[in-house]
Amino acid sequence: MKAVVLLSGGLDSYTAAAVAKAEGFALDALTVRYGQVHVTEVQSARKVARALDVERHIELDVDLAAFGGSSLVGDGAVPHNRAIDAAEIPSTYVPARNTIFLSLALGWAEVLAAEAIVIGVNALDYSGYPDCRPEYLHAFERMAALATRAGVEGKGLQIFAPLLTRSKAEIIRIGAGLGLDYSLTHSCYSPLPDDRPCGRCDSCILRARGFAEAGLTDPALHT
User: Fold this and answer.
1) 120: which of 12, 81, 196, 211 fits an S-S bond (Cβ 3.0–4.6 Å)?
2) Residue 86 CB partners (closer than 8 Å, separation 6+)
């Protein structure tokens, strides 16, 4: 089995890819440089791709900063120390990002005749992004069946999101069980000048809470 994994360099995409590999998928990785202010995550994606021993790792430039609309592409400040409410869509939401990423992965998956696209989205411990919900992924999967040669020929492509209903603590425990080195990953939306995590953005807060609830120490804080 072959799959294209959307690899951001963060904890979730690394874990999702490792789960897919453990289930027998051969992985090709796609990382998108989309104008994100936390571009250091791309360096982490390279490290993670090597650790996963992917067959090929493609980095694409798609400048979503040209549109703006999100603090992750420099349109306003990344919020710090906010009360995370999944019912509220924060300024870090990048309009249509997962739709764009999945579409790019779908194009490559067609070329590779891959059976799945792996994505590390999570709808439990997350910041409230609408394109991380189960109904969205199911809708994209249905669209892919209509829009591709494989789908027309009855060879549906799976959107494989093994972390979708897991808490951050569960995700970290899964990764620990698979022997993942989380020091390779980068989650912070607003890294300090030396690329250390800020500890105050949504992603840092959720990551810290996850490691605490899992009873583990985050190795990325000691590298």
Assistant:
1) 12
2) 126, 127, 128
